[in-house]
Design brief:
The chain is α/β, with parallel strands linked by helices. The N and C termini lie far apart (103 Å). The chain is built from 19 helices and 35 strands. It is 20% helix and 24% strand.
Amino acid sequence: MVKKRGSRYRWALFWLAPGFFVAGLLAPGHFIQGQTATVSYIGQIKPGASLAEVLLDIQPVSVSRVYHFSADPELERVYRLELPADPLKLAALRASPAFVYLEPETAVRAAEIATNDPEFTTDSSDAERQWWLEKTGVVTAWESTTGSKAVTVAVVDTGIDGKHEDLSDGRVGSGFASYCQVNDSASSQCLVHISATFGASENTDDNGHGTIVSGIIGAVANNGKGVAGINWNVRLLPVKVLGADGTGVSSDVAAGIVWATDAGADIINLSLGGTSIEGNAVLNQAIAYAYNKSVLVVAAAGNDAALSGADLDLSPVHPVCSDGKENMVLGVAAVDQNDKRALFSNFGRNCIDIAAPGVAYFNSRADQKGLVSTYYDPAQPTKNSLYVFASGTSVAAPIVSGIAALVAAKSPDLEGSALMGRLIASADNVDAVNQTACLGESCTGRLGAGRVNAEKALSTATFISNSLITDSSGRVYLIENGLKRLVSAAVFKQRGLKLGDAKVVSLSESELLPAGEPLPPLDGTLVKAAGVPTVFFVESGILRPVSLLAFRSFKFIFSQVVELAADEVSGYRLGRDLPSNDGALIKLEGVPAVYILSAGERRLLSAFTFRNLGLNFAEVTEVSAAEFEKYLLDEATPLQPPREGTLLKGDAAARIYVVEAGKLRTLSARAFLDRGYQYSQVNIVPESEVSVYKLGDDIP
C-alpha cells in the first residue's frame, strides 16, 4: 500500500517529478432472464435426430441456425429456438434425448470497469493521476479487450526491471542486450561491449528509462499497487541497447530491432533517437527488416533541447525518420492534457504520423507535470516499488505502442502496416488547438493524423481478409490485412466479383477502416487514363508505363487497352518503365542508323544484316534522344551478326566465313567443300563490316 507518495517516487531522466497512477478490472456480468410469453433456448441436435419431430408438441414461434454462416457439421446443428413459455412442455423438451444440450438463452450487459490501483482515474483533467488513459479512450477500450499474452511488445531501450512490483508477474520475458557497458571518457571508445541474452523476470535496467516506458505499456493492473499499464495482459520483451547513462549507438539499436523481430515481437517501441545517432543506413536496414516481417515499429519524435521543438522536415532525427521510401515507422509527437503540442516535442510532416500525451502541462523544466509510471533508481538497487512522473516523447510513444497492442489483441490477423493504418485512421484531429503551436505557425499536418484514440481504433469493425464490403456511398472495397482497398467498377467486372458477396456497412464504419492501395486490374492488363496518352502494363499489381517502342516490341494492340478514370489510375502504385522486348528495332530521330535491342542494350544493324534477318522498316520505332540513351550500346557485340549459318566474305579479302553462335568462323577450302557449300551462297559485304564482328575458331 502507498503510504507516502514522496517516499516511493523519485526524479529520473526526461524531466521527471514525483508521482504515481492506476487501472481497472471487469466486474462480473449481470444476467437477466426476461419474463415474457415466449422464451429463447439454444440447442444442439444430435446427428440423425429430426428437429422438426422433436418440436411437434411445442410448436416453436421461430427456429434459426446460430452458425448459419458455417459449414462445420457440428455447428450446423446448433439452433436458436423461440418457444412458448409452457413450463410442462419445456421440461419435456429439455428431457429429450435428441439434444446434445438445450439451455435457456441468457441476456448480458456490458460490465463496468472497477479498479483498485491507487493512481487510476477516469477524470481526464486530474494531472496528478493517470488522466491520459481516459483522454486516449483506453478506459472505454478495456470493455473490448484488456490485451493478450499472445501479443509481444519489445522495449528497445535501457532494459526493464522485471522485479518491479508492477511488472513482476512474469510478463517481462527473456531478452537481449547489445550495448557499451564501459566507455573510455578520454577517447569516447567502448572498452567493454556487452552482447548477450538473459532470462525472464530479471532486472536489466541500470538507468530507469526502459522501466518507465514498460510501465506505461503494461504495468500490472488491478493489483492495488501504483499504476496500471494500458495492457493488462501482454508480453514485454526487454532489449537493452542503451547504457547506464542512457546513450548508445545506432548499430546496437539496429541489432536490438532485428533480434526483437526474430524473437517474435509484434510491436517494437523506440523511445530513443536524435541527431547524435550515427549510421542511419544500418537503422534503415534494421527497420526495413522488421517492417518486411510485418512488425509495427513505433518511434518517439524526440525532444528539442531548446524546449521549442524542431521541424523534422528540416532537421530529421532517427530512428523516427528512418522510413526509407515507405512509411515504415509510426512516428509519435507529444501533446499535453489539452491536446496542444508539448513545447519540447519535435514535429514535421514527413516523420510524424500521430500524437499522444507526453506531459500534463509544460511551462518550463521547473514548472511542469509529467505522466506517472514505474521506475527503477540505480541509486536504490534494492527498491522495486518506485514510481515517477516523466515528460517527453519517450512516454508518448509507449502510449501508442500500448494501444497498438490492444488492437493487435482484438485483431491478431492485422499486419504491422495495417495496424499502423488503423491507429492513424482513428486518431482525433487536434489541428484546431495548434494553429500557432509550431514555432508560431500552424501545426496542421505536422502532428500526424492527430491524438491517438484507443476506443475508435478498437471499435473499427474487423472483417475477414479477402472479403468484400460496400458502404452507403456505393463504393466497394476488398479487405486485405486489415486495410480496405477500393475496387473500381472496371476492376470489379474484370475480376469476376459478385456484389451479392459484399457485406453492407455504414459509411462511418467504412471510414474507420484504414485505406490501402486501390485494387489494381489483373496482371497483364493494359490500362490508360481517360484523356491521357500514356499506357500502363499491370505487373505484380504495379502500373508500369509502356513506351511506344515497348508497346510495339510486345506486339500489343490498342484494342486491348482498358480506359479508366484519371483519378483511379492516379491512385495505383507506379513502377519503372516496362523495358522493351528483345528484337525491338529502334532509331534516333533524324538519324538513319537502325539498332536492334538485345538484353536491354542496342546493337547496330548493317544494311545486309537488316535484310538477312528479314526485318521490316515499318517495325522501326523512331525515338527521342532521351529514350534512345536509355539503351546503352552493347560494347561486347556492337554490330548485330547475321543469322546462324550465313556465309560471308569481305570485299577486299579471300576468306570465307560462316556465322556460328554469333561469331565468324573462317572456313578452309576442305571444310567449305565438305559441308557442301556453293559460292553462290556467299554474301559479299564491306571489309569494314567484317572487321567489327567477333571471330571464332577457324574450321580446318
